[in-house]
Amino acid sequence: MADARQIAEVHALDIKTARQNIRAACERTSAEWIPSNAITEALLQEFFAHAARTTSEQHLIKNLENLVVALKQKQKSGPLQ
């Protein structure tokens, strides 16, 4: 049976792969001349729709809190990239 460390490592790899796939989809969408702000709004809507189906409310809140912290830190250091 896998221990917590192994599960965390597999989860991190899954996240990395998912982000690569999402990034590729964003690049394809951008190549279709869809503006970045529309892509961002679509990603947020999909995030909430997917999270509502698959994630506990507590986990969603934690993810959103982490995002707010990251945005605040980025705001201090310069524009979003």
Describe the structure.
With 81 residues, this protein is an all-alpha fold. The chain has three helices and no strands. It has helices spanning 4-31, 36-54, 57-77. The longest helix is centred in the N-terminal third of the chain and has 28 residues, at 4-31. The chain is globular and about 50 Å long. The protein starts with a helix and ends with a helix.
Point out poorly predicted stretches.
none
Overall body shape: globular
**Count the strands?**
0
Order of helices and strands: HHH
What percent of the residues sit in helical stretches (DSSP H or I)?
over 70%
**Biggest pleated-sheet summary:** none
On the 0 to 100 scale, the average pLDDT is 91
Strand content: under 5%
User: What class do helices, strands and sheet pairing give?
Assistant: mainly alpha
What's the N-to-C terminus distance?
41 Å
From the alpha-carbon coordinates, what is the Rg to the nearest angstrom? 15 Å
- The total count of helices amounts to 3
